[in-house]
Amino acid sequence: MSRSTLTAIAGLVAAAALLISGLACASVPVEVLGDVEATLAQAATLADEALPTIQAEMTRLAVEFTANAPSYYATLTAVVGTARSVVDDPALQATAAALMTSVAETAQPLLPGGDVTRPVPEGELPRYDGGDGLNTVFVSPLRYDTEMASRVESVTDAHNWVFAGVQGSTVTVRITGGEGANLRARLFGPDGALLAIEDDTEGLNPVIRLTLPADGLYTVRVDAWAPGAYTISVR
Q1: I need a labelling partner for 220 at 20 to 30 A (CA). Which of 55, 91, 101, 166 fits?
Q2: CB neighbourhood size of 160 (10 A)
Q3: What is the DSSP annotation of 158-179?
């Protein structure tokens, strides 16, 4: 469902609600109010049907923002820094400083060196596991063009990394294990279907190269034959 359609539905619901209120105050015949109420009910049904689409789009936007957080943060830092340097008003400078502090606190977990392996609450991101019976220790966004690090502690654990993909684009997911680590990687599509599995692609390191079949959220699931530290990237 397109954004314009969703906007139209929202507008219809709001307009119908206002119309019912106005008609009731004007003592309009009951049958007319019934027609308007039926229209409002239809609009509400359409809005309910659109809710999964809206939720999926919001999730995609959240992952996309996380993936690009370093760029957003750098741009905003430059803009606010420039503003502070050219504005003489102490009050405006203080406001800019407060804004920068707020942005830093919000973005820090998403930036290189931040807490990128923090657990993500259930339901925020897909948790596909392919029915492997392993413990999904955490689910985390995976940023493009950024090497991120973690560690598999047990052969019974698995890590899920989620990134937003565009149909037709070719991606390379590269995992490099630390000393003693022997890792496996699987890629699941937006619908949970297994798209690729790699083990010893380059030495003991799995590398997945794939042209994405659809828009949506893709999950890289990492587990280990021999536990250890590793880095992961998607480009």
Answers
A1: 55
A2: 22
A3: EEEEEEEE-TT-EEEEEEEE-T
Where does 135-234 sit in CATH, by number? 2.60.120.380
**What's the CA gap between 220 and 188, in Å, rounded?**
7
Distance (Å, whole) CA 209 – CA 198: 10
Average pLDDT of span 119-125: 50
Three-state secondary-structure class, residue 118: coil
Tell me what pLDDT residue 201 has.
87
Go through the chain and tell me how many residues it has.
235
> What is the pLDDT confidence band of residue 32, given thresholds at 50, 70 and 90?
low
pTM: 0.51
Is beta strand 157-165 parallel, antiparallel or unpaired with respect to 148-152? unpaired
Q: What is the C-alpha separation between 26 and 113, in angstroms, rounded?
A: 63
Instruction: For residues 159 and 222, give the distance between their C-alpha atoms in angstroms, rounded to a whole number.
Output: 5
Q: Rounded distance, CA 54 to CA 25, Å?
A: 34
Contact 193, 178 (CB under 8 A): no
Residue found under tokens 């684009």: 169
- The residues, any chain, with a CB within 8 Å of residue 171's CB and separated by 6 or more, are 163, 165, 208, 209, 210, 212, 218, 234, 235
